[in-house]
Amino acid sequence: MNRRYRSISQAALILSLLALTGCALFNRPGRPLTRKGDEIVVAGQLFHTGTKVVTWMDPGGYDAYRVERRFAPFAESDWDKTIAALPKFGSPNRYSLRQKSLTPEEIELHRGGGWDLPALQRVVDQFVLHYDVAGISRYCFNTLQDHRDLSVHFMLDLDGTIYQTLDLKERARHATISNDRSIGIEIANIGAYPAKERQPLDDWYPRDAKGQPYIKVPEKLGDPMFRTPGFTGHPARPDPVHGVIQGEALEQYDFTPQQYAALIRLTATLCKVFPNITCDYPRDAKGRLIPQKLADDDLAKYHGVLGHYHIQTNKTDPGPALQWDKVINGARRLLRLPTLPEGAPGAP
To answer: Domain 50-334 belongs to what architecture?
Structure first.
């Protein structure tokens, strides 16, 4: 018995020494921390999503912290020349502090840039979905950064690549009255149109020899800079989706399967990291998707995933084609939550 006890003690000692040695090696000065390429940045911390993410810190990323215009000639891109070219630009910063719900003491604490995760989790309770009407993320960032003095936390390109342009602690300019409390994503899609204005749909979605639609990026936009070599996008459904948003009949081609796969994982991640973002969309008393702006009181109380059109009467994004149930129930499955009854029209 004593011999057995000594053997166990010696084994435990060896394991302890190995663990200590491993920790020492792991924390060796100058040793790099390895990223997987699927992380998002939240208050300086990294969280896995399970899908490809390119942050503003990565080569080829889009950096909304920069004052310079991203796509102007470099010699013409600084703030002084930007103001001369675009006098309506109000600030060199396209983002600001999430201050609406903060006390004066909290403003002083966070204004220098530092947020602890619990404080941010208390403030953020909405995830706003947009379509970008740019068609590709490269052109979306060009529009926001170089021409409109706006910003958004994420862009989702046609090939399913997610671009993060700001730490989620920042107040991006994407959804007016919800900016202080929300995270925003611009999903690459040329948008939704009334039947008499559908020409952009015909231009962007020609048919191949088999009669199937594919996404044709106009040559005037240049290289789309997809992270997937040779990528050609196809809508998840072959025909335009018709629906009514804000009381207006619209048609729109669906997002790509790659975009849905990435959006589901990002939605699950955000609902996990931010407990106040309920993994659901706005529903009426019968459990159906609400297809217009929420009443002001309802919007103030709403915590969850929503569209830009739920916030503003002059917006229709993400349009009638978005498969809300696919996104929400897909995210809920990843979170091991019960799926919810389908309440959105247009499911295939």
So the answer is: 3-Layer(aba) Sandwich (3.40)
